[in-house]
Amino acid sequence: MIQVLIGGDVCPIGMNLPSFKRGDAKSIFNDLLIEFERADLTMINLECPLIDKPAPIVKNGPVLGVASDCINGLKQAGLDVLGLANNHIMDHGPGGLENTLRVCTEAGIATVGAGKNLREARRMLIRKVGDIRIAILAVAEHEFSIATENSWGADPLDLIDFVRNIKEQKENFDFLIVLLHGGNEHYPYPSPRIRDTCHFMAEMGARAIIVQHTHCPGCYEEYKNAHIVYGQGNLIFDWPNHGKAFYEGFLVKLFIAGDLSSTMHIVPYRQSETRVGINIMEKEKERTFREALEERSCFVTNDDFVNAEWLRFCEIRKHDYFNKALGLSRLFRKLNSRGLLSPYFYKTRPMAGLQNLISCEAHREVLETIFNHRLIQAR
Question: How large is the C-alpha radius of gyration of the chain?
């Protein structure tokens, strides 16, 4: 029996930064450090590049990056693998990712999910633990970090490529773990698309699919002999002024037997709210946390519930999304946060055109090519 430990998103900023730089694993992981020490294979998602000189790219959303010596905290904790397929790994361009890979190599920590081109980014990491060959594949949804055939970046979520990758490597591994960086932030359930994607990955042979990126604890299910986790929550991420869920999460422990049967346990914790790093939950808080997690996990197996909850989420966020799609200024976005300007912007024929551009694969591919190749220059 071997034990694999998987943690969520790590961004060594705020109060946690000094401990990472000086390599103080005890103050970072506290009473959960022993969980990392006991495991046979450990991995987390590194949610930012390691940089020596800032070179922020132009993007939507926050730009993250920390000093290279933050690797000290991860090295002293004995981490084996860092997943790099996420929406922030290219926040400081090719140089930031290249430096991250170099620093990790020098620290003796393996990486997966990013590289100097698509061929390298898509490469599975295969580690033999005892007699079991564990494969790790890290993929990310398409934001500002995706690799191409000729450019640095993260491995994109592409189900065609996923199937090809498994067929190419199926003789080389026994147990496949997928780290999927995607979903909707602060939403504790999967969208119907994400759920179908994870189900398909399980049908194609993945034995554990761990969705990260949502910044809140989600839910989980067992499907086709696979463990699927729809959101672990942040592992270490000090970002002030967020709700309670931002500072809660759980480790995933996989116990894999010689016959490749497996069980999954979770370890709930609190992180970065009032003190440095992560700490195991107090008993009463853990009981409440587990009850809520189990309740969500019961619901997620119900198709009607998943669809209805997703529709409710979209109803809440509809004006925010259309404000972004229409390119409204900050003032107009604020005025239209509750749809006050909707009668002036949401006209039937233009809205039908916008729907067609986004929904039709052929039209969407044109738009993506225009943006990817900068055929229209923004001012």
Answer: 21
